[in-house]
Recover the amino acids of this structure.
């Protein structure tokens, strides 16, 4: 049997990998979803288990107000002097302010931080702010004991290349600050959009790996090398080391943003992000996922894929089969002190404001907060789907008294694209069920289905997704037959590629439960379970 890529499915982007003894740890980005950063563990590079979300305290991360697809970008994980080190960006602003016709000033706020811990699943330190000059920070620990911070440099000035290259500066990790001068070490290749740096030392060479081409279909892994850390760097003679650009037939697309790891036996593997497009619409509803494959060092000292032409591998025979190929069938129950591992929430470091697992034992209580899509405090708890065909189901106990109150199931990407099946109330207080869809078409469109009368008491809600199509259903708690809504909704619009102009789209689809109350009363909704199953 062979390992089927990707190894981390359903929005696990920007991978960074490190080996400590016989253990491998892979960190991936979480953007505006809290807690921040996901770290998976493996012993064989094939079977992976979530072991930590290190940024979970208000003193470490507060993303209230962060725009959609901002927050935590490109976390980098390393190990040195007996400690794990994590550097990451918290993006506070994403956008362009046009002041000179077509040449605008692109002001953005990228704050780069460092945290550390002696155990991967321990209590990580409070963050030390390192700089705000660009995103995708990474640490390189040289063999002379010094550590260096690399990041891409952002240039906001009109007429300049925004992706200005890769800079390096010495990091005093014990003091939590950068020292010495910042130096530009690599301006990038002709492919452009140079970001995601990682640096390695091998046979007297400094090998710099970067992501280039942007995060869409031109994405690529590019390498350069130098005898000195500060360069000059010679670009790989083959151009991109790994890419699916100009090869739309490949099952893994948008491949890039990689990191290297060496096994105890000396074999080199690369982890990298990728996307799996839907076959009909060619949209990546699952967002960016993490893949892995072996690489080879050739006699000329350059790294290449096994086929020598940079092909991303959909199957990896060099590794064991990583997971049971049977579809997932998981029921999450809310009978413990913490949310099941699959679930996250948006932005706020104060989860007690939006949900409780103790207010009604055995139920997840969501408190009605700001509107769905708010960038501050919205009560939305969700998980990632991992397949093109799946269904989710929950049982909700909710008694709204106003049209300002709504709670139910949501298929969510961001504030500009979601489908929200919710219970609400008419002016006469009668409970109603309807769907609010916000779609990224034209200038953006909001639409709502006609309200349906539903029985009082707990109500089961169901969402079924089959590639591009999404349908909703409901039934009374003691009924056996589902009542399906007449409408079919566009699941493929809840994707990276479907977007309004000028917005970042990096997170993929989430499915979960939401509750809002625009009256400010915080009316709560209780959820008994959340079932996720793949067809």
């Amino acid at each position: 049997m062979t390992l089927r890529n990707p190894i981390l499915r359903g929005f696990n982007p920007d991978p960074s990998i490190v080996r400590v003894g016989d253990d491998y740890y892979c960190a991936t980005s979480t953007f505006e979803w809290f807690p921040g950063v996901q770290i998976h563990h493996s012993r064989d590079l094939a079977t992976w288990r979530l072991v930590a979300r290190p940024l979970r305290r208000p003193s470490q991360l507060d993303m209230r107000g962060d725009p959609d697809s901002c927050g935590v970008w490109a976390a980098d994980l390393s190990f040195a002097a007996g400690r794990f080190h994590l550097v990451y960006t918290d993006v506070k602003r994403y956008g362009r302010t046009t002041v000179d016709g077509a040449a605008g000033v692109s002001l953005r706020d990228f704050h780069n931080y460092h945290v550390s811990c002696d155990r991967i699943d321990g209590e990580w330190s409070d963050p030390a702010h390192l700089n705000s000059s660009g995103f995708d920070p990474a640490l390189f620990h040289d063999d002379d004991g010094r550590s260096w911070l690399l990041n891409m440099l952002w240039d906001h000035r009109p007429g300049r290349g925004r992706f200005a290259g890769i800079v390096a500066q010495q990091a005093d990790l014990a003091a939590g600050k950068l020292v010495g001068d910042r130096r530009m070490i690599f301006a990038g290749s002709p492919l452009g959009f140079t970001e995601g740096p990682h640096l390695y030392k091998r046979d007297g060479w400094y090998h710099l790996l970067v992501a280039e081409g942007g995060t869409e279909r031109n994405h690529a892994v590019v390498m350069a090398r130098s005898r000195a850390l500060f360069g000059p760097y010679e670009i790989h003679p083959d151009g991109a080391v790994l890419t699916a650009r100009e090869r739309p037939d490949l099952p893994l697309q948008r491949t890039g943003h990689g990191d290297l790891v060496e096994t105890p036996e000396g074999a080199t593997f690369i982890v990298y992000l990728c996307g799996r497009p839907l076959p009909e619409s060619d949209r990546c509803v699952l967002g960016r996922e993490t893949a892995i494959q072996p690489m080879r060092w050739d006699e000329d000292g350059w790294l290449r894929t096994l086929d020598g032409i940079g092909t991303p591998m959909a199957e990896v025979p060099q590794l064991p089969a990583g997971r049971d190929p049977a579809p997932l069938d998981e029921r999450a129950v809310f009978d413990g002190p913490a949310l099941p591992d699959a679930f996250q929430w948006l932005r706020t470091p104060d989860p007690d404001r939006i949900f409780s697992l103790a207010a009604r034992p055995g139920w997840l209580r969501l408190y009605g907060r700001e509107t769905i899509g708010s960038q501050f405090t919205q009560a939305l708890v969700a998980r990632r789907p991992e397949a093109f065909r799946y269904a989710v189901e929950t049982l909700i106990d909710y008694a709204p008294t106003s049209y300002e109150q709504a709670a139910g199931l949501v298929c969510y990407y961001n504030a500009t694209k979601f489908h929200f099946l919710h219970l609400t109330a008419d002016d006469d207080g009668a409970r109603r069920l309807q769907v609010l869809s916000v779609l990224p078409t034209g200038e953006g469109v909001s639409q709502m289905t006609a309200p349906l009368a539903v029985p009082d008491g707990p109500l089961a809600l169901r969402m079924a997704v089959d590639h591009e199509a999404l349908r909703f259903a409901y039934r009374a708690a003691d009924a056996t037959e589902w009542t399906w809504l007449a409408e079919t909704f566009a699941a493929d619009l809840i994707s990276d590629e479907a977007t309004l102009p000028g917005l970042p789209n990096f997170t993929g689809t989430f499915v979960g439960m939401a509750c809002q109350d625009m009256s400010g009363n915080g009316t709560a909704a209780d959820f008994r379970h959340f079932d996720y199953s793949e067809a």
The chain has a mean pLDDT of 95. DSSP finds no helices and 40 strands in the chain.
